[in-house]
Structures are given as C-alpha cells and as structure tokens.
Design brief:
The protein is α+β, with helices and mostly antiparallel strands and 200 residues long. Helices cover 28% and strands 38% of the residues. It contains five helices and nine strands. The strands form two sheets. Strands 2-6-5-4-7 form a five-stranded antiparallel sheet, with helices on both faces. The protein has a four-stranded antiparallel sheet with strand order 3-1-8-9, covered by helices on one side. Helix 3 runs antiparallel to helix 4. It is globular and about 50 Å long. The two termini are 24 Å apart.
Length: 200
C-alpha cells in the first residue's frame, strides 16, 4: 500500500496490526514442518507461509487518515531500538486441548527484548487512542486455525502427539525492525505491508 492510496481513501477504515515479520528462510523452515503436520491433522485454515509473523499489537479498524500519526509514532520507537535474536521454539495451542482454535509455534531467544519492544509500541500508540489487549502478551506464530480432527487413516491421540514429532527448532534470526500490516480478507497472502520500521 502506498501513500497516494492512503490519502485518496483517508475516510476509509482498514484493519491494521503491528508485527515482527519472519525472514524467508524461517518462513520456509516452518512451512516445511507445517506440511508434515498437515498430512496428519485437519485444520480448517493453514496460514500461508508469507503471512507468518509475531503480532506486537492489534490496532483494529483504523481510519486511513490516522495512519500518518501511527507511522510517526512507530518510527520513533524503531529509532530507539536495536537488533535482537529470536528462534522458533515449542508448538502450542489456544482453546480446548481436544479441539484447539489455534495451532502456533512459540519463540525463545531474547524474548525479554521482544516484550520491551511490544510495550514501547503499546505505549506509543496509546497516545493515539489505541488500547492494549487485556490478556497478557504471549508472542507466537499462528500456523493453523480451527481443528477439525485427525485425517482418515491417522491413528493417534490428538494434536500434541503429532506436533511433538516435529518439534525441531529452527536457526535463530536477527530481528532488525517490524512492520505495519493491513489485513486483506479473502486474499492470499492475507497481510499487506503498509510500512516497515527498521531499528537504528
């Protein structure tokens, strides 16, 4: 999305969020592991590998006329932050164990710095009227949504038996910035970059 489009449709609302984008090598690694699991577990929707990310803050339906202020606040955050390293870690789920809503991959490494970044972003956008979620921040990469059951011919005791078989950790990567995304429902990939914010 470019600046002229944003100005042209300033009164329109778009669903925005801020995230750490995974580098292509990590996207590919996670995609290969997801393919192995996908052959055994039936989820309604699997995340396109180009959409793999770690959410920092969900902004929700936002007036395009406010994007300039959001950009300015996020550039200030990025200018005061430095590169840190993360690595994919354990698999996990949200929702009921037998019928989870989300299958995700966690992260380890310098998670404290990730939390600091998330808190700085929340603080900077709060001045613009955006509120943080009430639930504690749990950084993760969503891989699939809405478990429907095991595929025919698969004899196992549920999601965790399968994901435990594919729990090898990927190489670490350096986080050198974050992005502002707009959600494009019905498109693949579903997330489009509005702007990129690189650390100093």
């Amino acid at each position: 999305m470019n600046a002229p489009k944003l100005q042209e449709h300033a009164s329109r609302r778009e669903r925005l969020f801020i995230a750490v984008r995974l580098p292509e090598s990590v996207q590919q690694f996670l995609h290969m592991q997801a393919k192995l699991i996908r052959n055994k577990l039936d989820f309604r929707k699997w995340t396109d590998q180009r959409d793999y990310h770690i959410t920092l803050q969900f902004l929700g339906d936002t007036l395009m006329s406010d994007v300039g202020h959001i950009r300015a606040a996020l550039h200030n955050v990025a200018a005061d932050f430095h590169t840190f390293d993360l690595q994919l870690s354990e698999w996990g789920t949200f929702g009921l164990e037998k019928t989870p809503k989300v299958l995700w991959r966690g992260v380890n490494g310098d998670v404290e710095r990730l939390h600091q970044l998330q808190q700085k972003i929340v603080k900077s956008t709060k001045k613009l009227g955006f509120e943080a979620e009430l639930r504690p921040y749990r950084p993760h990469v969503s891989v699939a949504r809405k478990y429907l059951g095991s595929l025919p011919g698969m004899d196992h005791d549920g999601v965790f038996e399968i994901v435990t078989e594919h729990a090898s950790h990927g190489n670490s990567w350096s986080v050198d910035g974050f992005v502002l995304y707009v959600t494009r429902l019905g498109q693949t990939p579903m997330y489009e970059t509005v702007d990129t914010f690189s650390f100093s």
